[in-house]
Design brief:
Blueprint: E1 2-11, E2 14-19, H1 23-28, H2 37-47, H3 51-74, H4 81-93, H5 98-105, E3 112-116, H6 123-155, H7 166-193
Parallel strand pairs: 1-3
Antiparallel strand pairs: 1-2
Transmembrane segments: 151-173
GO cellular component, one term: mitochondrial inner membrane
Keywords: Membrane, Transmembrane, Transmembrane helix
Length: 194
């Protein structure tokens, strides 16, 4: 699959990197993901695929469930605990760096990247900036990924509380986010060297 990145300078050394949205991909993104745990177990046991493909299927299943739960929190009536959890989640998401959101937005099926930029920019300079983001992101997201994974066992201790385990789900979400950003950074490094 081919991705299109739009790059333009904002002010000085600050640039904006954005992915153009293909509306046909948003509906088909979770088309192959099973909807129930029973279907997931059936797919994993009967498909005969390697461990990496089964792990990716499990990650897609979990992320699909988390997306549906987030949409459920978003639709909660005002003043309920679900609404307050959604507000807390929005405040936490506001602290996530835009570069991570950009990296995470790129689909895992991408094999080629088309970069669109103004003619006033040098093509080599744009490519170098993208490579810099990928190199820096690889180091940052790998460290944060390992840190988030190491915090997951600690946050499971909060399951004894009668409230939703918000720290666990936040750390789980951050682990997934850093893992996806790390995958895209390594893909950009490979594309930038070709």
């Amino acid at each position: 699959m081919r991705a299109r990145l739009v790059v333009f300078p904002i002010r000085g050394r600050n640039w904006c990197f954005s992915r153009s949205i293909d509306p046909s991909l948003t509906d088909s993104q979770f088309a192959h993901t099973p909807s129930t745990f029973k279907d997931l177990c059936k797919n994993i046991s009967s498909n005969g695929k390697p461990l990496n493909a089964n792990a990716q299927l499990l990650v897609d299943f979990i992320s699909n469930k988390m997306n549906r739960a987030w949409i459920g929190l978003e639709k909660a009536p005002e003043g309920t605990i679900k609404s307050k959890i959604h507000g807390l989640g929005l405040r936490l998401l506001a602290r996530v760096k835009p570069s991570e959101i950009f990296l995470k937005s790129i689909s895992k099926e991408v094999s080629q990247v088309e970069i669109t930029y103004p003619s006033s920019l040098n093509a080599r300079h744009v490519r170098r900036r993208l490579r810099h983001i990928a190199l820096r992101g690889t180091v940052i997201h790998r460290n944060y990924f390992y840190g988030s994974v190491s915090l997951l066992p600690l946050t499971t201790a909060f399951t004894v509380l009668p409230l939703p385990n918000i720290p666990f789900f936040w750390i789980l979400f951050r682990t997934y986010s850093h893992w996806r950003a790390l995958q895209v950074c390594t893909m950009f490094l490979y594309i930038a060297t070709c």
